[in-house]
Amino acid sequence: MQQKNLFEDGSLSRPAAAALAASALVAPALASLGDRPSRSLSTKVWYALLRKPRFNPPKAVFPIVWTALDGALAVGAYRLARQPSTPQRNRALALFAANVAMITGWTRLFFGRHNLGAAAVGSAAIAATATAYVAAARPVDKPAAATGVPLVAWVAFATVLSTAVWKMNRR
């Protein structure tokens, strides 16, 4: 029996795949709405007073990079969801979902809880799952896998940055 949004081969319909892909854009946006502490004046002052390495990018870089990364992840998820259901495709989609959840949680660790050590570890975990996502997606859909490569690069950099900020601000 064929369900409305699921084809016999297990691939998702275009609307269902688009809804899944939109989670890469919507989940972080919704999380940021509920994450008032990260946007509070006290958090902005806390962040401004942190010692940061020389290679810390300007503040304006972060929303530009994350918008591009979230868009790329959405495209990759859409492409994967349109592929026939296989254990490899499903693993790649699970890793996609894990990355979206972990990226969303990282902001709370760093800005909400000011837990620099946990944020550095979390960043490394995101880098690991992003790498696993690319590896899992590659045999299923090479262009989908390619959309995850910039995330791997950025999160590897973010892990180095996060670790440096943590080390520079230990008490």
UniProtKB/TrEMBL annotation:
- Major location category of this protein: membrane
Task: Report the GO terms under cellular component.
Answer: membrane
UniProt key word Transmembrane helix: yes
Top-level taxon of origin? Bacteria
Q: Does the keyword Membrane apply?
A: yes
Topology versus the membrane, per the UniProt entry? Multi-pass membrane protein
Biological-process GO terms, alphabetical: tetrapyrrole metabolic process
Q: Entry's Gene3D superfamilies?
A: TspO/MBR protein
Where it sits in the cell: the answer is: Membrane
Enumerate the InterPro entries for this protein. TspO/MBR-related_sf (IPR038330), TspO_MBR (IPR004307)
Stretches that traverse the bilayer: 60-80, 92-111, 117-136, 148-166
Q: Which UniProt keywords apply?
A: Membrane, Transmembrane, Transmembrane helix
Q: Which family does it belong to?
A: Belongs to the TspO/BZRP family.
Q: What name does this protein carry?
A: Tryptophan-rich sensory protein
User: To which species is this protein native?
Assistant: Scleromatobacter humisilvae
